[in-house]
Amino acid sequence: MTLRVLIAALAAGFAHAVTAVTPAPGAPATPVVLAGADLYTVSHGVVPKGELLIVDGRIAALGATVDAPAGAIRIDLAGKRIYPGLIAANSVIGLSEVAAVRATNDFAESGAVTPEVRAESAVNPDTELWPVARANGVLAALVMPGAGSDGVLAGRAALMRPDGWTAEQMTVAAPAGLVLVWPQARAPDWMPQAARDRAEEGARTKRAALDQAMRDARAYAAGKGKGQGVQDLRWEAMLPALERRELVLVHADSSVQIREALAFATREKLRIAIVGGRDAWRFASTLQAAGIPVILGSSHSLPARRGEAYDTVYASAGKLAAAGVTLAIANDGDSMAASNERNLPYQAASYAAYGLGADAALRAITLGPAEILGVAGRLGSLDVGKDATLFVADGDVLEVRTLVERAWIGGREVDLASRHTRLNETYQRKYRGEPKD
Amino acid sequence: MRPSPRRHAWRFVLSLALPATTVAASPTDTVPVEGIADRTPRSAAIINARLVVKPGQVIERGTLVVRDGRIVDVGAKVAVPSDALVVDVGGRSVFAGFIDASSDYAQPRDPEPATPPARGAEADPPVSGARHWNRKVQPELDVAERLRPDAKAATALRDLGFTSVLSVPGKGVLRGQSALVTTAEASRANEILVRPRVAQHVAFEFGTWPSRDYPASLMGAIALVRQTVLDARWQAQRLAWQSRHRDAEAIEANLALEALGPLADGRQTAIFATRDELDIGRSLAIAREFDLSAVLVGSGREYRRVGELADARVPVIVPLDFPEAPAVEDPDRALDVSLAELEHWEWAPFNARVLASAGVPFAFTAAGLKKPQETFWKHVRKAVSSGLDEDHALAALTVQPAAILGVSDRLGTLERGRLAQFVVADADLFRSDRARIHETWIDGRRLPSRGAPADARGRWTLTWHGVDGPRDLEISGEPATQKGKAGDADVAVTVAGDTLTAYLPGRLVGRSSERVALVASLDGDTLSGRVVLDDGGEWRIEGRRADTARAVAAKAVVPPLPGSLGRYPAGEHGVVDAPASRAVVFRHATVWTQEAQGVLEDADVLVEGGRIKAIGRGLGVPSGAVEVDARGKHVTPGLIDAHSHMAVSGGVNESSHSVTSEVRVGDVLDPTDMTLYRQLAGGVTSAHLLHGSANTIGGQAQTIKLRWGGDAQALRFEGAPGTIKFALGENVKQANWGEAFTKRYPQTRMGVQEILVDSFAAAQDYRDRLAAKKGAPVRRDLRLEALAEILEARRYVHVHSYRQDEILGFVRIAQRYRFVPTFQHVLEGYKVADELAALGAGASTFSDWWAYKMEVADAIPYAGALMTRQGVVVSFNSDSDELGRRLNTEAAKAVKYGGLAETEALDLVTRNPAKQLHVESRVGSLAVGKDADLVVWSAHPLSSFAIAEQTWVDGRKRFDRADDLVERARIVRERDRLVAKILPERVKALARGDGERKSDAAAPAPKADHDLVHFAGLRPPYHDSEPVNVCEEEHR
């Protein structure tokens, strides 16, 4: 274990009250050696034509060759590449199935201040969306509650993996962060004045609700254990964040939002990450100095302003990385994005092409988010002792044409079939002249 | 002391003291006289006047004689009639009365409905009267019939010098007919009406989405104008025919169409209101189409389209609502202000000058000014100090509006025979903020101005009686906060009305008291007053202001224009000169021909005359050809997006009716949309701009080339056949519109099929009637005409579709009516790919979108490959301003999912969409003779790392990453310069409290995205690419 990973792992242990997770069932007892593939470790470069040993669901060894125990199953992967599982660091996968059908949406609770709601409690283990994402190497996701139209403190996120019979079995770490959606007052100046006023008033109301919640939660914390009555679910849920034990995931895109959020975090002495962060590159040195990481939103977004260069968004990750900001690249966290979490590597690739570079881009969808979320001891890279959560591809995972061929989660190989492959096969049969059923 | 010359003016003061109601006892009235008749002589002579007869013609000291409401004599040596009231104006200037050609004066306000109508679900009740079916069409409205003189508003207008205004109807699409009226004091409209029914007023007004009321989009409003003018012409023909065929069925009465007769015949002027610079072209196009005599009411941004206006030789009524200083004080918030907006702040005062230089006739209007009393003249002067010739400014208030309104023989000059409407003002009215309008004359009657508190500023020479006081008093400061100085002593002054009070230090007049008060009345440049002493005595004082004869101000130096007029669009990435079409050769590239020869390594492509001249190795080229070293690069055909909603103004959905085939996306192109440029930077050279999918038969689409830097017309892909959007499924049955939308037919997929059949049946019948060539004149029905074109294979259907049942249903309809559509989205097309192939239909689909609504639950990314293998012509489209920038990697997904060959995959965004748009003879592949639309990529075009380095359209370079980097530096420099220039003004505004907006709204914040879409139609040009042009709300 490298010093860096060790530190990250220690930090994770310190910072997170990770709930006990039911072990994933079915991890094979027999050790497995993945042999002959180029190992893209992320943490320490590429091991060409290397070997990786999986024992008890973890990476037991890796290198040019490994000492495999007798009876280990050897899988020949010559010509392939092995990557650590990708982490989608901002998603509602499992909380939304069909965006347009309200009955299937469970990602935004009612009310301005709902820190008590927990993402893992409503993730549907049988969602059709997960297998689709998993088939392209997305083997973990930070599932975040979102804010409704009047929401600010949305709830608590959970790091989930697409394996397990129940949401409990799928949970890697929970809570994994308190979600704060920073109010946005900006409305285009061509909107009718009444609508713009409403937007401004809405933002004001939310900021006031947030300030009040912070005061109330601190008062609650101060009175805790001093004969207080029945617990308040909301303030109870905020205690770890107030004590800097839990990360606050602050969704903020525009300069004004980020500026306000940074001032808020300083004032309240919170440990935060910026999520979204479309203008975060404008704060690169501030963020670096404050040690605030960024979970950057989709590169596949238009520049927010007419006057911005066409590649403003594409180039932003490179600028943040150059300044030394700890970086994750994610999707946009809405339900439309949840159905296509499989495109996460291409989000990273567009940043890569415009200045971030391929290595840093890969890091930002693997080890970067693992470090930010305090799970670098388990996920994010190919290192001894980490979960054997990884996948095999026939080329550069950042390239669209590359196929992901096999995947393991916690040492267990998972099926890469999905609704899409099944429908494809069904209708191939039609054109071969076979009957429907 | 010399008496003030103005004293003479008061010889006839008594006549003015009469109540207004008895003034107009003209022998031409029919109103019975009550009480004592007014027989005041109706003759007056204005003497000692500087007569500005018309722009460029001044009589320095002359006399103007008016009688019975008309000018009867004017000149330097004119005899004053014996019965005339003589008015000595003391050398002041007399201008012809000013005319505002766009006012709402004297119209009663329609009461606003107590509760605003609920959003859209229900249609308005039918209109009353035998009018047009659409309440936005009310051409029969005659403002002259509704006039009611308004003393307060008239006074305010006269204070600005306006003696006549065109009172225009303010609501609707065909709004009604305006009336030219005077601003005289009057009780009855008869007294003020100069000319009724001056013009018909047209505006592209529409409701917000979603609405059942037509039009709900800009293109709908334009279509409504077009159809209504056609209907007016048809009604006239039909009635004529009917009078010869007494036993034929009579058409129903329609007073609205009747009222449009004069406009349709070109006898009545059409005045178009424009919201922005793009409405200019739209209005001119309608005027040309129907040969209308057109006038435009501008938006203040006419300078950006001055060439187009000059070519059209159409007059413009120009507002003077210059923008306030943009909010640039907070650097983070200033990011939201575009360079285009910053530039407009600088350019706005130059608008009139630019028009004048180009020979565009124009008139000024005070319309649009929030506080015209404070800003109108200030802005006129700003225009003049920005280089507008003073004569042009005067013309814009006199002869030009008179000409536009067809009353040049009655108004606009001081020539003999004109109506006696004129303004007495200081000579430097067009240059100095100290100049004042002293009185106006209408119908030969004098109407003094109220005016602001007198302006006492200047150097006064005082004559003291009874004591030796200070000889000089200098008053300076702002008009509202004037302050004085006598010698080295500060003197507090106040001005109320015409009364000046100055508090002089007692020592200046030898008194021991701290201050003595001088109270004087101001009269022009003289004052007379007294100092009241504590002991009961007084001193008399007279004063005269120096150098304020208010001579014509010396002409200021004409400032340079703020920048290059040719740059278009304004602001970021504007193009100064259209890129040249020259011979160009791309050397040593990997060339993806998308033709039989496949991918050529180390090949050259020669372009000449906008076309591809040769492809091969080591090509010889004409001398002077530009060499582009493309070694290590890939050259592909320009990408084509078969489903886009970029560059569309005023909404993409005419969502009101289920069938709106008459609306045309081509009417509302927005060449300022930055999306065009951003997609060029993604290698896109052509796109198909579709109507949305809110109704079964949407509107006519427009195929464009991404000729960034050109105007709306330049975007059109000339020669591309017409297309039209149809839609099936959830959107058209309003499944996701909310519970309020459950009434419009169809609400089921069953109904969708039937409304399609019904529409084609109607179209067939229409064709038959047109072909009959006998009987009554057939009404040209643009809705059915577009459908008939489908039946004649002159227009191609692009049908939004998802589920296999509806796809198959449409296949059957297409077979029945013998046309070959392209299916859009067609996400379950893979389930009926054999049927699509058999029909020869195209499939334009998403690479991998799914799951966002029920009807896309079975969408799979393998669909593109699967349909291709079944012989369907497949394309991948964007349906998104964002996704359109990376169609190359979308194509790559067909390699990943389904294993298409790489050239087959690239076909999905080049050759195949060209086929679907029926432009494959021009674009879509690199072949000799085809348009030189191509992209130079930094890497393999299907790679995530490929960057479009150059994008060429018609052999012209429309995007170059190297040039882009240079332009970025210019943008930064320009922003810096403008922000530095704006900041002082902005800081002043903030100090006044202008900058902060107070909000008293208490309503909860709406879901922002929903509101954006709701107000999509309001989004102006030069926008921030907010995601409002969505095919269907639930996409994003």
Give Rg of chain B in angstroms: 35 Å
Q: How many structural domains are formed by the residues of chain A?
A: 1
CATH class of chain A: Alpha Beta
Topology, number of strands of chain A: 18
Q: Approximately how much beta-strand content do the residues of chain A carry?
A: 15-25%
Outline the biggest β-sheet of chain B.
8 strands, mixed
User: Whole-number average pLDDT of chain B?
Assistant: 90
- Fraction of residues in H or I helices of chain B: 10-25%
Number of helices of chain A: 13
Instruction: For the record, give the distance between the C-alpha atoms at the N and C termini of chain B, rounded to a whole number.
Output: 81 Å
CATH superfamily of chain A: Metal-dependent hydrolases
Supply Rg of chain A: 22 Å
Structure report:
- The complex is a heterodimer of chains A (437) and B (1036).
- Chain A is of the alpha/beta class.
- Chain A has helices at 3-15, 129-134, 167-170, 193-223, 233-242, 255-268, 284-290, 312-322, 335-338, 344-356, 358-363, 367-372, 419-431, and strands at 32-40, 46-55, 58-63, 73-76, 81-84, 86-91, 108-109, 138-143, 146-147, 153-160, 171-181, 248-252, 272-276, 294-296, 327-329, 390-393, 404-409, 412-414.
- Chain A is built from 13 helices and 18 strands.
- The N and C termini of chain A lie far apart (53 Å).
- The model of chain A is unreliable at 1-22 (pLDDT under 50).
- With 1036 residues, chain B is an alpha/beta fold.
- Helix content of chain B is 25%, strand content 24%.
- In chain B, the strands form 6 sheets. In chain B, strands 1, 2, 3, 4, 5, 16, 17 and 18 form an 8-stranded mixed beta sheet that branches.
- The longest helix of chain B has 32 residues, at 961-992.
- Classes of the chains: A alpha/beta (437), B alpha/beta (1036).
- At the A-B interface, helix 4, helix 6, helix 9, helix 10 and helix 13 of A face helix 15, helix 22, helix 25 and helix 26 of B.
